[in-house]
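Incident log, support desk, overnight shift.

02:14 A customer reports that sequence design results differ from what the structure should imply. Their input is reproduced verbatim below. On-call engineer (initials T.W.) acknowledged and began investigating.
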């Protein structure tokens, strides 16, 4: 531990590389079904305020040069795990934070943060997804509607069990006016909603919901990059998750 972080190892310590590096939460406030409106430029001030208030973050230490919204950061060392990205494009806010990829010991960090965000943004549609892959992929996906109706799915796609699913995907889709009959064959190919949970691509379901409700990312959009000090609890969990051996 030092003044900049709660890590117990040096910041240059190598971490296990995740093959997907996906750990995102997106808010649409308010959701705008079937909207084709072009998103406005990134709001750097709002992004910093969002970072400072995010529950996994103890403090924002530094703002780095922005990145295109289409890019992703990949962690190779502990220091890389201190980097988060946030895009604020009008009604759309998206955060990528490695702290969301901590599923050990029964943790559901995506669900926990989505619930916290719902308290702060009750009129927002919130979709969260984490799919860390350290040899075997574990997924955690959440869709939370403004009225609080929530779909949560968590498990290992390579195995039939154990899986935990809370909520009915069809109820969520119906509430958003999404008719499965209107989906493309490609979309339906990954949404086996009447089959075992491991056969459904829950992350793709969340993406479908976001696109339907107004998240239309365009070329030229930027996002902020912050170096943060994660809270002591989340830092400890990240060390357990990302370190080669503990």
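02:41 Re-run completed on a clean worker. Output:
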């Amino acid at each position: 531990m030092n003044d900049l972080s709660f890590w117990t190892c040096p910041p240059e310590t190598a971490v296990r590389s995740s093959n997907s590096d996906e750990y995102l939460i997106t808010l649409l406030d308010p959701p705008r079904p079937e909207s084709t409106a072009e998103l406005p430029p990134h709001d750097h001030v709002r992004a910093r305020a969002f970072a400072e208030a995010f529950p996994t973050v103890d403090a924002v230490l530094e703002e780095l040069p922005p990145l295109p919204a289409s890019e992703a950061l990949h962690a190779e060392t502990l220091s890389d795990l201190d980097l988060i990205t946030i895009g604020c494009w009008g009604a759309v806010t998206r955060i990528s934070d490695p702290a969301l990829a901590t599923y050990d010991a029964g943790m559901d960090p995506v669900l926990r943060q989505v619930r916290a965000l719902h308290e702060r943004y009750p009129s927002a549609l919130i979709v969260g997804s984490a799919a860390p892959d350290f040899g075997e992929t574990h997924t955690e996906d959440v869709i939370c509607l403004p009225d609080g109706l929530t779909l949560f799915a968590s498990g290992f796609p390579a195995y039939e069990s154990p899986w935990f699913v809370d909520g009915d995907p069809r109820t969520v889709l119906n509430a958003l006016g999404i008719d499965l009959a209107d989906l493309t064959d490609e979309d339906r190919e990954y949404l086996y909603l009447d089959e075992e949970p491991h056969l459904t691509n829950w992350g793709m379901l969340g993406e479908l919901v976001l696109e339907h409700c107004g998240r239309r990312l365009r070329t030229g959009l930027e996002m902020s990059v912050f170096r943060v000090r994660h809270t002591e609890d989340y830092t400890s969990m990240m060390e357990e998750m990302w370190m080669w051996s503990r």
